[in-house]
Specification:
mainly alpha, globular
């Protein structure tokens, strides 16, 4: 039958579309329920269309405070993990030193280790050091947790780089710093950006490690978990919808920019020389 032949021919595409629909459906439900006006504490059944939550997004006590705190921790954790992870990735790829193989193996340990084990280990470390649990312990824990993901992303990019481009820059009288800033860094930028975005998402979303090391500090995931015990305010779903829309727009914009040709790393050769003429 023609229909069966068509299904067999497009089976992979159909399976992919069904899987994608299965993944997107919960997000669509969340977006719809951000416009709901529930009766009672729980927002689990559709009652009435309303814009009350969108008109007063901070109507729930401490919600915006916990969201702001999570954004701050994610921002600083991303900066710390990206800076350290980029340096570690370059060191592991470009240099030979003792214990390099062991460090390469240890980098994957936090990624393979269950979060609850890492959370308990960090809590033991902080308590033995006499540190007060709070913002700084959560920040340090998030940097340590995100570091492996950044190293993995940047390392993959650095390993694929063509060393002849840096050699060409040195032939054009570029110094080590200029070569790194004008050639190496732009080429490695996609890997660094990917690691940074992954670190931000992991830090903002983390609950287990934060719950162990936060003390009295309440981040957005912890606030959501605590609110779910007593009710589900519409404002929580509102912020989830806003973050989802922002992520999709950011991803589409990044995808559009990635498809545009980028010749900055090679174009600088004429205008970026140090002014000295090359003599044969």
């Amino acid at each position: 039958m023609p229909v069966l032949r068509w299904i067999r021919r497009n089976l992979v595409v159909i399976a992919g579309l069904l899987t994608l629909a299965y993944m997107i459906l919960p997000n669509i439900v969340v977006m719809v329920f951000s416009f709901n006006k529930p009766k009672g504490r729980f927002n689990y059944a559709w009652q009435q269309f309303s814009l009350d939550a969108w008109e007063d997004p901070c109507g729930v006590a401490d919600l915006c405070g916990s969201l702001s705190l999570s954004l701050q921790i994610a921002f600083w954790a991303t900066l710390g993990a990206t800076a350290l992870g980029t340096m570690i990735a370059f060191a592991l790829v470009r240099y030979r030193f003792r214990a390099r193989g062991a460090i390469n193996s240890l980098i994957f340990l936090p990624m393979a280790m269950p979060e609850v084990v890492m959370a308990a280990s960090l809590l033991t470390l902080f308590l033995n050091m006499g540190a007060e649990l709070g913002f700084w312990t959560v920040l340090i824990a998030h940097i340590m947790f995100c570091l492996s993901f950044v190293v993995t992303a940047v390392k993959a990019r650095v390993m694929s780089m063509d060393p002849r481009l840096e050699e060409a820059a040195r032939d054009l009288y570029a110094g080590p710093v200029q070569t790194f800033v004008r050639v190496t860094l732009p080429i490695a930028a996609p890997g660094i950006a990917a690691g940074a975005l992954l670190a931000f998402a992991l830090s903002f979303d983390d609950f287990i490690i934060t719950n162990f090391n936060a003390g009295s500090t309440v981040t957005f995931p912890m606030f959501v978990w605590g609110s779910a015990q007593r009710g589900t305010p519409v404002q929580i779903i509102l912020f989830a919808t806003a973050l989802l829309v922002f992520g999709v727009v950011f991803f589409v914009r990044a995808l559009h920019n990635a498809r545009r040709p980028n010749t900055n790393a090679l174009h600088w050769g004429v205008s970026g020389r140090s002014g000295r003429k090359h003599t044969p």
